[in-house]
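Hi everyone, sorry if this is the wrong subforum. Our group has a chain we'd like a structural model of before ordering constructs, and none of us has done structure prediction before. Sequence below.
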Amino acid sequence: MTDFLLELRSEEIPARMQDRAREDLAKLFAAELAKAGLAASDLVTYATPRRLALIARGLPAETAAVSEETKGPKASAPPQALEGFLRKTGLTRDQLVERDGVLFAVIDKPGRATADVLAEAIPAIIRAFPWPKAMRWGAQSTTMESLRWVRPLQGIVALFGDEIVPCEIAGIVSGAATVGHRFHHPGIITIGNADDYVEKLRACHVIVDQAERRQIIALGATMAARKAGLELVQDEGLLTENAGLTEFPVPLLGRFDAAFLDVPPEVIQLTARVNQKYFVCRDAAGALANAFVCTANIDASDGGAKIVEGNRKVLAARLSDAKFFYDTDLKVPLEEQAKKLDRIVFHEKLGTVADKVDRVAKLARWLVEEGIVSSAPSPLRGEGRGEGDASTGVPLDNPVQPLSPTLSPEGEREKLANQAERAARLCKADLVTGMVGEFPELQGLMGGYYAAAQGEDPQVAAAIRDHYKPVGQGDAVPTDPVTVAVSLADKLDTLMCFFAIGEKSTGSKDPFALRRASLAIIRLVLDNQLRFSLDDTLETMTDVIASGQRDDGRQDFRAELDRLLLNEIATGDAGLVWFFADRLKVQQREAGVRHDLIDAVFALGGEDDLVRLLARVHALQAFIGTEDGTNLLAGYKRAANILKKEGFGASSSPSPLRGEGRGEGQSQTPSSVSAPLPSPLPGGEREQKTLSYTPEPAEAALATALDSAEPAAAAAIEAEDFERAMAALASLRAPIDQFFETVIVNDPDAAKRAARLALLDRVRAAVHSVADFSKIEG
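Answer:
Right subforum, don't worry. Here is the predicted structure as tokens:
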């Protein structure tokens, strides 16, 4: 077995493309080998700014002989068909093989030298390489047939063992020669084979292994910072980028003027990272220090002093620009900046950013005035429930500031509403500032800094800073009530308005990030225990949004909302409530919550309080995982199948075998049932009604169990104690099992059959008071 080395040397490959290029090289090479029936025992790829390399280990000297078989026409086929097949295969009639009346062309192909296979594969790989961006160069670049590569290709090393694999593409001939470091060893290096490739380049100041370069930078930067009494701010993305920019990395620490620390630390870090690819450092107190770490691509004789000084001057110029933007922006109050938002179009059908700000401000105030967002915690109700009850998996307290001792609840709410509206009016003002124009990533953050510096209420400034949160799955969720109100209003406005104009996410396309907005809303609601009906709230908010829409000759926006939003919610046709249901399943999947259980609770109808819904789902999942839950589910499905076969449909009319305390989910029963089983009344008396027959003991026991379980479950659900509701259902397990073991449901006696079916319908309805078990898998 022999190893193969391929190096494709070019001018600088962008760092962001190198990892993907290594993957593509391995994939293309393996595919070309597979065509010849070859496979390497191991593939290793490397990338530096100037070269893309692959080492394939364990290749045979020759490919195995293969026999190709092509099916032809029947032996009795017309001569024309036979002649066409012979022309296609290049064989004669005598050379064909007949099996079961069908002719086959069997062609034996001898093995080929692996070097020949590789010689054909290299040009094919180069021409098929899927660079995100590529270029043409030289005299041949005037034609579309010329070679394309990420940067001009300069050399090819192709060695199978110690022998050169001869090939040529666009005038570039393969060989064994490459070059070392651009400055330390610019001369030619001759590679002997794959085994000495890495070490020969290392001797010439080229570290070809990207992982090794990352480790050198990480360790060197950390040690440089520690030597100066500082701590390096870790940045994995920047580490990878620096490794892709250097072939011989040397981390160096420098200092910048401490006066620049007056600029917000995020601005300094972003300036250093984006513009210069520098790491930053913190001091012992955790504050940003006036130090940076750059990565040189040369081992300088002066220890890097001139390199550091040059980088310091460039960084100083960048930070001077940032300080100018910051100082200039501070001179203009955010309220004045906000007036410029009417120059920015939010969407052609939704007006300007100023229009959106007006809607968000009204929504934020409304959310507070309606008590959806408040300073008071809103735990799930239920007896015996402690804070953060682990049984539901939902935090039960809203971690926000308590009511002010100097204000009445009404005064506190009015204050909170004013703060929320003020924050919403200013939350987008930083979009027109010079700093955000330079660094769009800082929107919101800079608004918070400007608001604080200009004397705005601290809660207002915090809300401006954090109203975009949570942005991603790992982002922090705001808990301050002012921030929650503005953030929730901003995202609800985006969702409702884009749904109203028909701009919904479809398949893999989500140009307005509506999925992300819905996931953020779900996290805001659950983490802050915001209690409200999603359906009712969306409908009421329609008035608020419509009132904030400017009349500029377009179709009445309220009519659009009614037609495109509310009607769809009512029918469940891709409306917002169903959109939230789908997103909730996605969001909870990572937490280990089963999607079918969410469907089971949603299917009840009317359960669109997300906090209560998820608490119910968690309790249901815990119950279904027990032996009682598994057996009850099996008994329910058996009962439901019998009822379905007999044509029992859902209805609101009472069941003859139903006891008191029933909730929703009642069912229609046959009219042939003459009277129910005796049922206990709330006062303890027994209703004196008799059946036309004497019920079986298991039949009577199930009815009695239902008489107890139904009101217990209903009371527990009303108290939002879903564990107790599950416990009430668990009491039905043994009676249901006994019923199916000893009672014949489809009795020849019509009265018995109808009464027993009605009893099973009661079981189904009792279970449906908690969740629609028909949606549960298993």
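For your construct planning: The CA atoms of residues 451 and 562 lie 37 Å apart. The two ends are 52 Å apart (CA to CA).
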